[in-house]
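With this grant's support, the team has encoded backbone shapes as discrete tokens. A representative record is reproduced below.
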Amino acid sequence: MTGAAPRPTLEAVAARAGVSRATVSRVVNGGDGVREPLAARVRRAVEELGYVPNQAARSLVTRRHDAVAVVVAEPESRVFADPFFALQLRGISKELAAHDNQLVLLLTEGRDDHARVARYLSGGHVDGALVFSLHLDDPLPGLIQQARIPTVFGGRPGWRGGRGDVVYVDSDNRGGAREAVRHLVGLGRSRVAHITGALDQTSAVDRLDGYRDVTGDADPRWIAEGDFTPGGGEWAMRALLDRCPDVDAVFAANDLTAAGALRVLRERGRRVPQDVAVIGFDDMLPVAEQTDPPLTTVRQDIEEMGRLMARLLLRGPAAEPASVVLPTTLVRRGSA
């Protein structure tokens, strides 16, 4: 039994092209200073021999690893239970794979993990970072900026001391919330409540502001704080019904919150949408289409947000990437 054919070497390519080993190295690693006729000979020799650069050696020369860290500032239990993160990670993964980059997932179970993440990013293991689900008092942005690697954030920055030149991808949270509440008012609902998300995140604050843009000086008892989870939606809906039993509409900060609210309304004998109309935010199909009744919700393109984050990062500083805010649309189903 014969062994596999030996892997072509840099020296073999140099011999085939009739140039020095250093010339081949500069061409395959994207360096400058090689005249085009010589570079063309090297590329032809690479193709003929089927030469594949050694990635470890290439990283030492170019300081590139073709790897990107994706930092999610949430514990593992939240990330793998919420389909929002799966959709955003899928968009990121598709874009990175299309550019032959690897995804390195970093989660933070608690504050003790922040130093670990910062050390990893500062250690030169990746070429950049994509960071999302940040909280307003989160030290991660500052630690990441100290690491001095290219970074794109998911969501509008809102942390204290944040620089104005950060690049981010977000949805029009405030505008989407306004459209949802206007729809409820247009249905003739006069007691529209809001279950917020976690108010230490800018998306939740923006959606609350959008609600207030339409309701103005609405009764503050109509606002109940949630945390973007079904359990939070259940707790907040019970609190709303206990103190304001005549509520006739609810705008929930996300679909998971709305699903929790729907369960409580059903338990309390409230018909949806006849007695209480409900609107969510996200349009995550595994949630929105499985509720009873199917959920009217504000659609944001979560997977595309992930793609854009990766795309902006891969363009590099020379492209001067600008932040992007994606539009939202109201998707009408049975709940409102």
